[in-house]
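Supplementary Note 3. Input sequence used for the single-chain structure prediction.
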Amino acid sequence: MTYITKPRLHHPSLTRNEAGYTRRDYEGKISTLCAGCGHDSISAAIIQACWELDIEPHRVAKLSGIGCSSKTPDYFLGASHGFNSVHGRMPSVLTGANLANRDLVYLGVSGDGDSASIGLGQFAHCVRRGVNMTYIVENNGVYGLTKGQFSATADKGSKSKRGVLNSDSAIDLVALALQLGATYVARSFSGDKDQLVPLIKGALAHEGAAFIDVISPCIAFNNHSGSTKSLDYVREHNEAVNRIDFFPSREAIVADYAPGSVTDVPQHDGTILRLRKLHADHDASNHLEAMAYLQKHQALGEIVTGLLYVDPNPEDLHAHLQTVSAPLNTLNAGALSPGKAALDKLNASLR
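The predicted structure, written as discrete structure tokens, is reproduced below.
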């Protein structure tokens, strides 16, 4: 079998970002997924988002589990750190890496089988602990590597390619992320780059648990009539809650806004999410309203996309644990093991 590799040479006229990198510098290997797979569109959106944010590729740590989606980190950010864990265990590996080195930008890429089935417990605890990460689920509602069985996110009543009806209730990872305390929650569609790129940029800039569920139709097993994860179904039932733009902040602006106008949502690190308000009944800073909005439109058979909720003042796991500002992997043995006197003092303070 012959593998075609991308040329290493870049045209000298390619546009460079403020960090000095071209968009090509954020690419990876050539994808081996099915031609037309929505996952490749998500990879392209991640590449675009990182390039536009001027993130140095070597500052990114990308982690994944098992599945078609978990293969995709090989197709973007080839110069970044990476670790492909076992099935459903990406969140715990990411948590450990984050605790050891808080200076990296953490990107977890998973799938609906990897996160909503075998990895559901790991997903839940990683989100509720507030690990500073961008957690992207490439959601197609099937197990693509094992020939198209229903996954835990497949909607009840949806039909498989072989004509089998799904009788199990679906797990909505967006609703679960909201309930578990994620401080940035969004949903998008792999075929909507204009919406997806700003959502990823906002998540990468967010200092807390950021979760994005991306509906990504499996063209081999789940892109047919009767599937609620197909291209046609998502396009016909897409209920976008807002139009999103993102830009680095010069001055934080907070203001009341009317339907149809723009609101700026300040982030903890000084960046800004700019939302164009299209619906009078949705406020991305209102946690309770976000959950109600999601359930309301779910009952109508509509897929809510866009930024559902963002906490402008999030706290991550390091803040909860009160860890030192220096990455733990930079500390020497003396700092990590201060000795019996320090331990006795700590134990006495807990009595």
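The chain has twelve helices and 13 strands. The longest strand covers residues 303-310.
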